[in-house]
Amino acid sequence: MTAQDLNSRDLTTIPHTHRKLHVVTHGCQMNVYDSARMADLLRPLGYTTVDKPEGADMVIMNTCHIRERSEEKVFSALGRLRVMKEEQGGRMMIAVTGCVAQAEGEVLAKRAPFVDLVVGPQAYHRLPELIAQAHRKQGVVIDTEFPADQKFDHLPDVAAPQGVVSYLSIQEGCDKFCSFCVVPYTRGAEASRPALSVLAEARRMVATGAREIALLGQNVNAYHGEGPDGRVWTLTRLLTEMAEIEGLQRLRYTTSHPNDMTEELILAHRDNPKLMPFLHLPVQSGSDKILTAMNRKHKADDFRRIVAQLRDVRPDIAFTSDFITGHPGETDADFEETMKLVRETGFALAYSFNYSPRPGTPAAALPQVPKEVKDARLYELQAELRRQQDEYNLSTVGLVTPVLFTGRGRYAGQIAGRSLYTQPVVVEHGAELTGEIHMVKITRANANSIVGTLINPPLIPPLSPPLSKEKIAA
Ligand code: SAM
Ligand code: SF4
Prior knowledge:
Blueprint: H1 3-6, E1 19-25, H2 29-42, E2 47-49, E3 58-63, H3 68-87, E4 93-98, H4 99-111, E5 117-119, H5 127-136, E6 141-143, E7 165-169, E8 171-172, H6 183-186, E9 191-192, H7 195-207, E10 212-216, E11 224-226, E12 232-234, H8 235-242, E13 250-254, H9 263-271, E14 278-280, H10 288-293, H11 300-313, E15 318-325, H12 332-345, E16 349-354, H13 371-395, E17 400-408, E18 414-418, E19 424-428, E20 437-445, E21 450-454, H14 469-473
Parallel strand pairs: 1-2, 1-3, 3-4, 4-5, 5-6, 7-10, 10-13, 14-15, 15-16, 19-21
Antiparallel strand pairs: 8-9, 11-12, 17-18, 17-20, 18-19, 20-21
S-adenosylmethionine binds next to strand 15.
């Protein structure tokens, strides 16, 4: 079957209420949010989501372009979809969305002509119209425009419930142009969603069961949305209003940039009782020379200062971060600076990646660090971060701490939840406690989760006790 045959399917013959949609999500939490919103958009067109691509009428592959490996994953997954599409006689419509679609639109259409739609992250709200176009037209329909109006304004109000822990996108894009990063090119300029629209969606989430909401953005702490009073609201202001929502118990925000960690936001970790003692703050490197080369516009000591200030106002706060090893120009001495920063800080968890040259970004044009050098540094860094994660989880053993229960555990008789510090918690208990917060004594730490027992008689926990670990443990 030729690519053209594969693109000439007629979905109009499928009963309106029986269309099956399968969405594959790669990459960050913002993509997870976008995938859910695309499913919301297509529900009124008769699409219900299914777990497998086999037999689906439409498959959306929501992609990530942040590293080369993420992009390779897309092309190999598309190869498998092509086979399925052929087996279905070309009936399956394939849409590629997200950052690979944005960055590689034309290339994608050439390399994978059996794809029907290529849609950039700013054009999701036009999906129904683009699907209709794809029905009429032979070949690939591409929409990778950055429209002046915001996609947030066009997304439907009715969203499928995400569960006890829900994610809410409040800011998109980035103007910071770090030397290594494709986000400013794939997601466009930084734009914040108006505060009223965020608050309305948060209330709807709580009405359908959310108890914890994480606000999302590429640089979420740079949020500057229009407030109902006509003024610009900062993230701190928004978090203050969100804390007033009845039934909402916990608030988080991610991902933050050190340069936007303002004094008022730091103090919110002391003053906002619903704001969790947890912060994901990528620093990327501990070397000032490399931070300058990365165009981060902050020094390693700025990161140290922010960590110290936050620990001062909220002693039990847990930190996570992102690191890149082998950025162009990184010497052994620069890498040692990163290791020093890691050892000094003590992370609950951190993500680390080898630098991956992204076409069109400034660092990609510079002389590269050899792969074996990058690999060796990443190995050393990850060993230290793993050690810190284990040490952190172990340090919570013996604590009596509030756990928000999110559902059943993996095994019968278990319930699962989240600690204040985002650790997955497992408790052996038969009762249904989903959506409730209970005090749990942590008894054991595993590699990626902690285990505890419910405190009996149950204590009514404070939302986010502003106490040091020692005090919580008492
Ligand atoms: N806005 C956040 C910040 O300023 O740190 C990060 C967002 S980025 C989508 C997520 C992470 O991917 C980055 O923190 C960085 O560590 C990693 N990353 C981005 N581009 C990369 C590249 N070219 N190679 C390796 N890692 C990369
Ligand atoms: Fe990418 Fe974050 Fe830098 Fe923006 S601030 S360019 S999203 S790494």
